[in-house]
């Protein structure tokens, strides 16, 4: 995943663990694409302080993900959901005599992955 | 959920955000059912300090859950998984002429809930 997009997703998952000010600055920088200078003016904070906050919070978000894996588990779940929908579409197009085994297979997939 | 069980589950989800010592004390207290006195001896910490750590970490874990909702989302997902398996079992026992609609219904359930 592109680093900028990854941080943006991490903000969605872990932003609540940041302070309101940190959260605001991270959103302005990563989601609304403001420059350090613009953020400095909007938040009435020095450019250097904005830079430091972004750097520190980026590190914090990566640490939270390494400890809790919410983003990673969400990606895995999205993959499982897609797989499940694909399997149900496949099942719909098949002959009904194969149905029983196919459904068992999907159930096993749910048990193992969801 | 019983409070003791709830804290035990919260330790599973958020224990990595605690320090090693905090994590150890919380596990000894909530998962292995040791007394404050026993934990004090095992960890070479005063009984009062053990008590304070348990109280502070309990509060921390509840705060993490209120901000991230990992436990709550996991419970919802477990419910959805059970629902999905129930629906597949039902589908298996039905006549095949109802099959198409039933599968569409399950797909919609996956789209809305997983």
CATH superfamily of the largest domain in chain A: Winged helix-like DNA-binding domain superfamily/Winged helix DNA-binding domain
CATH architecture of the largest domain in chain A: Orthogonal Bundle
Give the total of beta strands of chain A. Answer: 0
Nearest-angstrom radius of gyration of chain A?
Answer: 21 Å
Major sheet of chain A: size, sense and barrel closure?
none
CATH topology of the largest domain in chain A: Arc Repressor Mutant, subunit A
Q: Helices and strands of chain A: which structural class?
A: mainly alpha
**Which regions of chain A have little confidence, pLDDT < 50, spanning 5+ residues?**
none
When the domains of chain A are counted, the total is 2
Helical run tally of chain A: 6
> Biggest interface, which chains?
A-B, 27 and 27 residues
Strand proportion of chain A: under 5%
N-to-C SSE string of chain A, H for helix and E for strand: HHHHHH
Measured between the Cα atoms of the first and last residue of chain A, the distance is: 23 Å
Shape of chain A: elongated
- What is the CATH C level class of the largest domain in chain A, in words? Mainly Alpha
List keywords for this structure.
mainly alpha, about 110 residues, Arc Repressor Mutant, subunit A, homodimer, 6 helices, 2 domains, elongated
Describe the structure.
Chains A, B: Keywords: DNA-binding. Chains A, B: Belongs to the UPF0122 family. Chains A, B: Pfam families: UPF0122. The structure is a homodimer. By secondary structure, the first copy, chain A, is mainly alpha-helical. The first copy, chain A, folds into two domains: about 5-70, Winged helix-like DNA-binding domain superfamily/Winged helix DNA-binding domain (Arc Repressor Mutant, subunit A, Orthogonal Bundle); about 75-114. Helix content of chain A is about 80%, strand content about 0%. Chain A has six helices and no strands. The radius of gyration of chain A is 21 Å and the shape is elongated. The two termini of chain A are about 25 Å apart. Chains A and B meet through helix 4, helix 5 and helix 6 of A and helix 4, helix 5 and helix 6 of B.
């Amino acid at each position: 995943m592109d680093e900028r997009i990854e941080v943006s997703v991490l903000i969605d998952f872990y932003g609540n663990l940041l302070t309101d000010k940190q959260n605001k600055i991270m959103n302005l920088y990563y989601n609304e694409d403001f420059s350090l200078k613009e953020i400095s003016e909007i938040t009435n904070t020095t450019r250097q302080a904005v830079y430091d906050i972004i750097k520190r919070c980026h590190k914090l978000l990566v640490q939270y993900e390494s400890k809790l894996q919410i983003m990673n588990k969400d990606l895995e779940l999205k993959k499982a959901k897609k797989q499940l929908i694909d399997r149900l579409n496949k099942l719909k197009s098949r002959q009904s005599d194969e149905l029983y085994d196919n459904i068992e297979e999907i159930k096993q997939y749910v048990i193992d992955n969801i």
